[in-house]
Amino acid sequence: MSRHIAVVSVARSDYGIYRPLLRAITADPALELSLIVAATHLTHQFGDTLSEIIADGFTPAARVDCTLASDNPASIARSMGLATMNFATAYESLKPDLLVVLGDRYEMHAAACAAVPMLIPMAHIAGGAITRGAIDDSLRHSMTKLCHLHFPETAPQGQRLLDMGEAAWRVHVAGSLALDNVKQVKLLDMASFNARFGTAIETPPILVTFHPVTRDAERTADYAKALMDALETAPEPILFTYPNADTAGHVIIDLIEAFIADHPGHAFAVPHLGTQGYFSAMALAHSMVGNSSSGMTEAASFGLPVVNIGRRQEGRLAPPNVINCGHGRDEILAALSKTRIHEFRDTAQGVVNPYGDGKTAPRIVNVLRNVDLSENILMKEMF
């Protein structure tokens, strides 16, 4: 009898990371996959990613709607409550042997909360990280205590889980699933990229991925305006992606659209690039600017210079291709100038990515297949 593994995906960001794991689970005769899709996957505003999932050959076993129209803090909290109720309904129907969750989004935290009273063992991917500028830290560390198996990306993250009181047998340092994707995805050239996404980029662009700083959301407009001001004088084309569905995300989207309207033919936006499109953009880009974890994790595999703005990723391991700076216009301009220096670009090209070797999915599947799921897995010593 196969072991029933349910995997929760709540956003484009985690689905792109999950893909090699989903394929590895599907290919293993000892495992049965149920993919639960939720939140922004089910909204058109964030790129209709459900259609991408289906096109990849995965049929969702359940759909959990929990995204509200507003993105203010109270609405986020209400979304968490709605998600908890609807995930419970999905689990009641699917009855998985093991639940896989990833990262630190509030919808993912709700998915974990719903599983606790139902006594479903949980495996958490990418715990043990630190991002001081986001509420994600609180959610991620809470999920560590809710879950029973852990797949941190790096040894320091694994040690942090041990320091939090997790038993050593529960912690398996596996690397980043995102790097499995880097090895597997066929990249688009510039002409194919433009044809796919309706852009007209002729030279390497600045790739901009900027999200709200959720511990300082009231300053989102100020931070985003400073970024736009810094990009005003950039000679390189600008390629924006949309932010996540976080508090004040709509503020950033509005400023992106205004910037594009003021810079026709020079600035472009694609709400959702998908994994192939996003990695292709990284490979084609001159540099990357923003505050996305992809700048810390995947960008090094492309030798891409990264300007990491503000505190959103503060505490996360930053490879030598990353330049950290504050939110001020002049600070961003100075960091952008460094990305144009040949010596720094040579350094970025030579970086060995510290987040793994692209063989993470087989390591995780091996544990999911063989771990003892008797009642002992649910019995955690709490510290």
Automatic annotation (TrEMBL):
Source organism superkingdom: Bacteria
Pfam families: Epimerase_2
GO annotation, biological process: UDP-N-acetylglucosamine metabolic process
Residue ranges annotated for the UDP-N-acetylglucosamine 2-epimerase domain, each copy included: 24-369
UniProt-recorded Gene Ontology molecular function terms: hydrolase activity, hydrolyzing O-glycosyl compounds
Protein name (record): UDP-N-acetylglucosamine 2-epimerase domain-containing protein
Upper taxonomic lineage: Bacteria, Pseudomonadati, Pseudomonadota, Alphaproteobacteria, Rhodospirillales
